[in-house]
Specification:
The complex is a heterodimer. By secondary structure, chain A is an alpha+beta fold. Chain A has helices at residues 23-30, 87-94, 104-116, 124-130, 142-155, and strands spanning 2-8, 11-17, 49-52, 55-58, 71-73. Chain A has two domains: 2-76, Ubiquitin-like (UB roll) (Roll), CATH 3.10.20.30; 87-155, [2Fe-2S]-binding domain (DNA polymerase, domain 1), CATH 1.10.150. Chain A has a five-stranded mixed β-sheet, with helices on both faces. In chain A, helix 2 packs antiparallel against helix 5 and helix 3 crosses helix 5. The longest helix of chain A is centred in the C-terminal third of the chain and has 14 residues, at 142-155. Chain A is globular. The relative contact order of chain A is 0.16. Chain B has three domains: 5-50, Uridine Diphospho-n-acetylenolpyruvylglucosamine Reductase, domain 2 (2-Layer Sandwich); 59-165, Uridine Diphospho-n-acetylenolpyruvylglucosamine Reductase, domain 3 (2-Layer Sandwich), CATH 3.30.465; 169-263, CO dehydrogenase flavoprotein, C-terminal domain (Enolase-like, domain 1, 2-Layer Sandwich), CATH 3.30.390.50. Chain B contains eleven helices and twelve strands. The chains are: A alpha+beta, B alpha+beta. The interface between A and B is medium-sized, with 28 and 27 residues. The structure holds flavin-adenine dinucleotide and FE2/S2 (inorganic) cluster (2 copies). The site of flavin-adenine dinucleotide has 31 residues of chain B, from strand 2 and helix 7.
Chain lengths: 164, 264
Amino acid sequence: MAQISLTVNGKTVSADVESRTLLVEMLRDKLHLTGTHVGCDTSQCGACVVQVNGMSVKACTMLAVQAEGAKVLTIEGLVNEDGSLHPMQEMFREHHALQCGYCTPGMVMSAIDLVNSHPEGLTEEQIRHGLEGNLCRCTGYHNIVKAIAAAWPIMHNKVPMAAE
Amino acid sequence: MYDFTYAKPANIADAVKTLAADAEAKALAGGMTFIPVLKQRLNKPSTVVDLSALGLNYIKLEGGKLIVGAMTPHGTVAASPEVKKALPALAELAGNIGDRQVRYRGTIGGSLANNDPSACYPAAVLALGATIKTNTRTIAADDYFQGMFTTALNPDEIITEVHFPLPEKAAYAKFANPASRYAMVGVFVAKFASGVRVAITGAGQNGVFRHAAFEAALSKSFTPDALNGITTPVDEMNADIHGSAPYRAHLVGVMAKRAVAAAG
Ligand SMILES: Cc1cc2nc3c(=O)[nH]c(=O)nc-3n(C[C@H](O)[C@H](O)[C@H](O)COP(=O)(O)OP(=O)(O)OC[C@H]3O[C@@H](n4cnc5c(N)ncnc54)[C@H](O)[C@@H]3O)c2cc1C
Ligand code: FES
Ligand code: FES
């Protein structure tokens, strides 16, 4: 057992983990942040994507000990203090970018990294290429692509979020 | 996953010492192959030696060569202005490995140490005649790849850098498996003043290989049409649920033409 400390959703946390504990296992089983899902054994589905130091990574393919000292952001950390949603979550809702929702936390975390990494703009082709690590068995992707395209101008302060 | 001891040495000497002290110790780079292997209990290391603190994440141009540190992630190679300028085909290749999340963590050293028969980097390293530098020696690409998942590396040897000579023209064309993004067939062509080198990944039964007939034809005329009528031996091709041997042999020719066209 090793004790590691890291920042998760802005809070410093420590946890006792085995060397073999995966980051996703620590998040779900020790910290009870079950919004991060596990959808495969092969590092292909992206249901487990979280951000580590601003980069989207598959939490099922990283050891918890590798995250020592890192800043981790999960889907639970996106919501604002007043309870309002992150623009990406809002756009997923607006554009009906989810059905069963299993892939959604990973999709949203990947999408935010993708938008943040492209301040110059984001084409549909770039969005589709950027989502290659996230599988969705329900939506057929079109509405997810639309939601991300709609979130880009809001996240880069080009347009305010539309009022309900 | 079986449990193991985790070590994160701060320098290459300590990392080598830890690996050499125990035959069951294994290096960990991006973990994009190794962690899935551990999850499936296909490997039972006693100690996992994390290479991330060795300072091997860098890219530089030196003496007319592009030097990439072993722990440089694919995404960093893809986005590097130096690589885009000096060897754009390599940036392009790196930017199409796996997916965004794999590219943040997967490294060039891990890809070459693993030598997956469908991996992309081996094709670039072999076609460009790159040199693999380890903690003890330098190994020419032609000597390094020794069949599927087999390389010239010793168990306690660590790749530190890859040195790429800069070609006049080069390109990589990949027919990706739509689920994994690994190459069903990937062809890297590199044109030097001394001639053309062509390496094929994803297709061969023994992993990455050079295509002598393509090299001879392209050294005479670097055009897609120069490859007309040149076939690839079907009995040396890999066959699996994704494609038969004749299909892959055909695809090798198609992708080679596309690579030559892309190199311009
Ligand atoms: C979903 C998915 C899609 C992928 N698609 C592609 C693709 O399209 N094309 C492609 O080429 N690859 C692909 N990969 C593989 C990936 O790009 C990595 O390159 C590969 O997993 C190995 O690199 P790594 O840094 O993750 O190494 P690890 O998994 O950490 O290590 C792999 C092996 O190499 C050894 N090792 C690592 N570094 C060194 C070193 N410096 N010296 C000596 N030994 C070392 C380790 O001990 C281990 O045995 C994919 C992977 C995934 C999960
Ligand atoms: S659970 Fe499928 S990629 Fe992590
Ligand atoms: S909404 Fe069901 S898997 Fe994507």
